[in-house]
Each structure stands twice: as C-alpha cells, then as structure tokens.
Amino acid sequence: MRARTRLITGLTVLISGLLVATAAYGERSGPCAACEKLAGFVRPGEIDDEIRKMVGKYTGKHKGGGGRENVAIQKARGVIETQLYPDFIGGADCPQIDSEKWAIDYSHKRRRAALHKGIDIPQPRGTPIRAVADGTVVGRFMNEGNRKGIEVMLRHTPAQTGLPYWSYSQYTHLREMSPLPMGGLVKMGMEIGKTSNTGKMGRRVRRDALHFAILYSAHPEWSNDGAVVTPKDGYFMDPNAFYRLQPPYDSQALSRLPAGQKNIPVPYLKTDGSLVPPDTRRIWPYACK
Question: What per-residue string of b and e applies to 175-197 under the rule 16 or more CB within 10 Å gives b?
C-alpha cells in the first residue's frame, strides 16, 4: 500500500510538473492573448509558414537545412544588398550604421546559413532608442537563449508613416524590457528602450548597439505567436529605404537605382526635441545633434 501511495504521489508530482512546464511554454510560445483586440491581428495559423521562416524561425529537420531554406526565402523577400546609404538632412551629427550595413551574409558566424536582416547602430549603453514613427506595440519578447535579446516591435499604418504599406519596426538588444505595454499607442520620438547588447553571444562580446529592422506588407493583417511578429505576405525592407519619400521600396528595384539615387535623405529628431524637417512622419531611431 505504501509503495502504491508513493507511486501515485510520484506520478502526481510528475504530471503537475509537466502541466506547469506546458503552461509556461504556452505563455512564451503560444498565441499572444493581449493581441486579440488589436487592429489587424489574426491567429498564427492564418499566416503562411513561409513568413515565419522569413523572420528567422528555424523549421528544418536537419542541421543547416532550415537555414538554407530560410535564407532563400529571405532573399526572395527583400534581404539583398541595395547599396543605400543614410544622408542625414543638413549634415546632422547622427549615430551611424556600422561597417556591416544591410543584408550581410552571417553564415560564417552561425551554425547554419544566415543573413543579417537589419542594420546595427552602435551607441553607448543606456542611450535612449526612439520610435521611428507613430505606431502600436505589437511585440515584446525577452528572447531567452536567442541572439536578438530583448526586443520590441511596433506596427505603423500607412496614415502614420505616409508609406503605401503597413510597416513594422523592430528594435533588439535592449537593456531591459520596455515599459510600453502590448497594444500601447506610441508617438514618434518616444523612448522605446535603452541601448545594450542583450542576447546570446558567440565567441566574442558583442558591442552595445541597436539592431534595427523594417518589415512591410500591402495587407493590414499580422500575427504574434509569442515568439515572432509575422505580417501577412510580409517582406523585409532595407531600413534606409524606410525614409524614401517615393517608390520603389522593394530591394530588387532599389538595387537597380543609379548611384546618384543611393544616398537617402534621412529625417530625424534633434536632441532639443525639434524635428528635421518639421513635418516628417519618420525619423532615425536615435536623436541627432
């Protein structure tokens, strides 16, 4: 009887532990309950799995296979070199992109094929990071064990940016999670978080920098499965292209622009709180002098 009691008790503890683990996993990786009432949100199953691979979800069965598949999708959906360069209006002193720029092949830094899907802007730890446009918080991820580190994503409507798309700005490696709540309305220039280097590192210590990326879609629908934000039929945009005032915005067309059109006039927020130009709806993610 005692043995039977111990067995039942042990099984109860085991099952309870599994239930707790399952609940915790579901909270981290399940659909975003807070997203249900947000404009444009759809359940994860309504977004094509190709888009999950585009944003970096590894779904391959064999080591390296998923990486190559993801990279092929990412290249087809915008992650290719465009040779665009930020030209800050009026020659302002703004934090610059590092030498690695956009769409760099990161395969030599990873265990599988990989691309750098954003730009890195080094700044001292604790430097405030600014919302690049009015928008809504649609993603907050701690990314434990992930290279991205602490991450926030905003969704911007065409009316908020002046672009003919719904766009999504991604900010990673934050020092701590932003106090901005899911669904919170954000004004351009508001602080998203502070600069740091959170996230899983390789053999060297990563410098403090913001990883900044832009996704976009012709459709308003998007999802959040607890791990990634996925715009319906989404694409990646060179973050420099986000500041263009007219098309094209797709990387294939941008790569074919003549050299004289590669420097992009970039608007910004000054450290005194003023905007350049005053009527801009998009700014650089750091304040400029």
Answer: beebebeebeebebbbebbbbbb
Per-residue DSSP letters for 88-107? EGGG---PPP-TT-SS-B-G
Distance CA 15, CA 227 (A): 26
Gap between the Cα atoms of 57 and 67, Å rounded = 9
The end-to-end CA distance of the chain, in Å, is 78
Determine if residue 117 is left, alpha or beta; phi over 0 gives left, psi from -120 to 50 gives alpha, anything else beta.
alpha
Q: φ and ψ at 206, to 5 degrees? A: -75, 140
Q: Which residues pair with 155 in a beta bridge?
A: 136, 168
Residue of 190, 134, 184 whose CA lies nearest to 159? 134
In angstroms, rounded to a whole number, what is the distance separating the alpha carbons of residues 101 and 80? 11
**Cα separation of 272 and 288, whole Å?**
9
Phi then psi dihedrals of residue 153, to 5 deg: -130, 140
3-class SS of residue 223: strand
Distance between CA atoms of 104 and 234, rounded to whole angstroms?
20
Lowest mean pLDDT among 29-33, 147-151, 164-168, 271-275: 29-33
Helix (H) or strand (E) holding 276: strand 275-276
pTM, full prediction: 0.86
| pLDDT tens string 18-46 | 333 333 323 344 568 889 999 999 999 99
Domains of the chain: 31-43+84-98+118-276 (2.70.70.10)
